[in-house]
Amino acid sequence: MVQEAVEGVPQRGTLLRRAHELLESLGRPTAEDLLIQHLFGASEDTQNVTTGRNAVWTLLLRQVLNSSSLFEQTSEREWSLSSWRSTHMPLENVEFVVLDTETTGLRPGPDRVIEVAGIRLRNGEVIDSFQSLVNPNRRLPPFIVQFTGITQEMVSAAPGAAQVFPDFFNFIEGAILVGHNVGFDIGFLSHEAHLLGQAFPIDGIDTILFARRYLPALRRFKLDLVANHLKIPAANRHRAMGDAKVTAAIFLKLLALAQQQGIQTLGNLRLRLQLPVAWSGDITDASVSRQLDQWRVDGKLAQKMEAPPRPNGGLFLNPAWKRDFPAKPGVYLMKDENGQIIYVGKAKCLKDRLASYYSQPLGYTRKMDGLLQNVHEIETRVLGSELEALLVESQLIKQLQPTYNVQLRNYELYPFIKIDVQHPFPRVYSTKEVAADGARYFGPFRSRRIVDFTIELIQKVFPVRTCIRSLPPLAKPSDPCLRLHLDRCPGPCRGNVDPAEYAKVIEQICAFLGGEREDLLDRLRRQMLEASQQMNYERAAWLRDTIRSADEVLIGQRLITGAVEANNLFIVYPSARGGTGRRAQYRR
Questions:
Q1: CA distance 247 to 105
Q2: CA 151 centroid distance within chain
Q3: Averaged pLDDT of the chain
Q4: Whose CA is closest to 564, among 437, 414, 458?
Q5: Could you give the CA distance from residue 467 to residue 559 in angstroms, rounded to a whole number?
Q6: In 321-337, which positions are buried (b, 16+ CB within 10 angstroms) versus exposed (e)?
Q7: Which pLDDT score is estimated for 27?
Q8: Taking a C-beta distance cutoff of 8 angstroms, is the pair 98, 121 a contact?
Q9: Distance from chain centroid for Cα 255
Q10: CATH class of 89-261
Q11: Given the DSSP bridges, would you call strands 78-81 and 30-31 parallel, antiparallel or unpaired?
Q12: Does the domain formed by 316-405 have CATH 3.40.1440.10?
């Protein structure tokens, strides 16, 4: 019986990630029955075949969740995230780990960690520390050797990730993570944890965001600048322990400032770091709720609740180039060390656009991954107007096919989202073929990753079917999956769902993909406000990120749909030479 019940159970790391995702999305302690369904795919009927079988699923669940400090049992049949317990804990009782990593680049996966360090703090005192080089089993890029001082010989003699990170994850267990641009470090450490089949905290306190709140006189927040402002010596920079020591000193000073201003608990601190710099109210007071409500009414809540920054292009681009960028419309060509053109772009003002790359966050899209660190020269070509720049950019991309240009290739290379509205209960899925079959198509999207992201977002906020099973009346009614219990699918597999009601949901999805569904954002903002008022900060942060994602999809679809539906054009535009013009005819 036990062997039959556990056959095909996924690995522990996969189960831990599933549990963390479910608890984070629900934002509250969750019953074991629901966790068993989500982790093991066991339906209620399967669980209850016999008392013994149900006991096996429960035993498996508890073994998995007890193996990680990320989870804790809050009652006989409920589990929650351990981090929720510390929300109301006084700051002097909270243990923090200030961490830093050095890596071979900016992308977790293609790039790896080469050094990791952590300093464990409690009540302002250092109680433990950790430091180790890590062998990435690859050659170090020359600019990383120069930047960090870590050589190939040093990492070749170091232990590998499988030896270092289990010890490091034990070291940080039960602590709140802190870092300067902590999202960068968490991204790499999460990847290493994934390779080891472990779960890893996905949240932390960013000292950049902390400094923005409590050091209003500063305009830039690089580690050196913040340390200098606080009169903290910055030694052994760009090594993991050196940067961790500086960050820890900064964190303790900022934490003291926060406590002087009435921040007493971890929950207070997290909320304060999400509120705007100019906030002057008492965060333990109802004034927060009133202000959040006003921002929701004004449609500004998602913009006001901030997220930590990411690394930028200023690390790689020559600052002397900025002096020569012309303040005129045109195109720019980025070249690698061999003079090969790797990216073509256009701008209304070349000077402003190219200067923005120096503060451009990295790692958001596949298009930008690895681009700026490979740029050794930027050529500019002044043109007569922004329109001419757009047309010339398109011509150059088609002619040169630069490595990092992905937006202006032929539509047939791009994926679309398809909704077969001829079916009584249609799904939302991706396709690369557009046919005259009566279905609704949306796109094109720039990549399959963006399509998958958009579909995942739709499946989170709309109750829509995702399965491919046959439905009544063509098949017998069947047991619903977990999405029904999460209110994310009406369960047409049961045979009692009205197709007309389901069609209303599909209309909402089509409107959303067409960029017209602003009331969806209003609903998500209301839910975020409610979560904030209930001090459910993890769910509020999840909703905040979902709102931003929805905003990006709405804006992107307005632009893309306009491009697809454009008619034939005859265009006259000014030339770069005064008193002259150019004309062009474009057929769709």
A1: 21
A2: 31
A3: 78
A4: 414
A5: 31
A6: beeebeebbbbbbbbee
A7: 65
A8: yes
A9: 26
A10: alpha beta
A11: antiparallel
A12: yes
Q: How far is CA 197 from CA 11, 67, 489, 554, 558, in A?
A: 7, 12, 30, 35, 40
CA separation for the pair 348, 327 (Å, rounded): 9
The per-residue pLDDT for 568 is: 47
Q: What are the C-alpha distances in Å from 482 to residues 50, 147, 257, 452, 512?
A: 20, 49, 46, 20, 25
**Cβ neighbourhood burial of 474 (10 Å; 0-12, 13-18, 19+):** exposed
Angle between helix 537-564 and helix 266-274 axes, rounded to 10 deg = 20
pLDDT in tens, 323-365: 889 999 999 999 987 888 989 999 999 998 888 887 765 544 4
The residue-averaged pLDDT of 386-407 equals 80
- pLDDT tier at 143, thresholds 50, 70, 90: confident
pLDDT band at 582 (very low <50, low <70, confident <90, very high): low
Take residue 183 and report the two structure tokens written for it: 């999202």
Token pair 């779960």 in the structure block, residue: 199
**Max avg pLDDT among 200-209, 246-255, 541-550:** 246-255
Query: Could you report the per-residue pLDDT of 251-290, keeping only the tens digit for each?
Result: 999 999 999 988 888 877 877 776 554 444 454 444 444 5
Give the residues across from 341 on adjacent strands: 335
Query: Of the candidates 115, 118, 91, which has an alpha carbon nearest to the alpha carbon of residue 248?
Result: 118
How far from chain centre, in Å, is Cα 489? 25
Average pLDDT over residues 573-580: 58
> Would you kindly state where each structural domain of the chain is located, as residue ranges?
2-87, 89-261, 316-405, 413-564
CA distance 136 to 119: 23
pLDDT at 209 (0 to 100): 86
Q: Which amino acid is at 363?
A: G
CA–CA separation, 361 vs 339, rounded Å?
A: 25
φ/ψ of 129, rounded to 5, equals: -150, 165
The two three-digit tokens of residue 131, written as one number: 């430091």
3-state helix vs strand vs coil in the chain, percent to 5: 45, 15, 35
